[in-house]
Amino acid sequence: MSERTAGPARSDLVADTALALLAERGMRGLTHRAVDEAAGLPQGSTSNLARTRQALLELAVRRLADREARVLGLHEMPDPRAGAGPLVDALALATHRALTGNRDLTLARYELALEATRRPELRAYFDATGARFRDQLAALVTGLGSTDPARHTLSLIAWADGLMFSCVAGSFGAEVPSLEDVRAGVRELLEGMLRG
């Protein structure tokens, strides 16, 4: 086994390479052969692991969810009994991490999300893997006393997704807001919802 595949599991290497290719080349640049080449694997290795394009996309989505859980700090989310302040800080830090040191991962997520709009089987898989953050956020806003947790969760996620898209792929792509600016936006949104 080569030194390159001795560390992480081969499936992680293939999935990480797929995510990097999605960020760099877009969906059209993601092929089994391109993954083999970029990962330094013998030709056919990716195909042996994920026979179909759907299987390769699912492998990438699963790895994306694992990596984003670390970026977003799901294990660091505060106890809602501590009040809104710690949640504002945690959500701002998670969003800022996605905008700064994890920009390529965020780009890959948008590529996969757009592809899922054209592939119902991928949509179901994509939505299911993203449910852990959504469910945890819903529990947090419920714990803070939200009168409409489902709507408030959607609003928070839509705000964060909109900010990330605008700053990674949209018209604000050259600008990254500071952590304090992100914190101010989350605070305004969350406090406004909890007052309403």
Q: How can the largest sheet be summarized? A: none
Overall residue-averaged pLDDT value: 91
User: Strand percentage, roughly?
Assistant: under 5%
Number of β-strand runs: 0
The level of helicity is over 70%
Shape type: elongated
Tally the helices: what do you get? 10
Q: Classify the oligomer.
A: single chain
Q: For the record, give the distance between the C-alpha atoms at the N and C termini, rounded to a whole number.
A: 59 Å
- H and E string: HHHHHHHHHH
Low-confidence stretches: 1-7
Structure description:
The protein has 196 residues and is mainly alpha-helical. Helix 7 (103-116) packs across helix 8, helix 8 crosses helix 9 (149-168) and helix 9 runs antiparallel to helix 10 (179-195). Helices cover 73% and strands 0% of the residues. It contains ten helices and no strands.
In short:
The chain is mostly helical. It has helices at residues 3-6, 10-25, 32-39, 45-49, 53-71, 84-99, 103-116, 120-143, 149-168, 179-195.
Properties at a glance:
196 residues; mainly alpha; single chain
Q: How are the elements arranged and paired?
A:
Layout: H1 3-6, H2 10-25, H3 32-39, H4 45-49, H5 53-71, H6 84-99, H7 103-116, H8 120-143, H9 149-168, H10 179-195
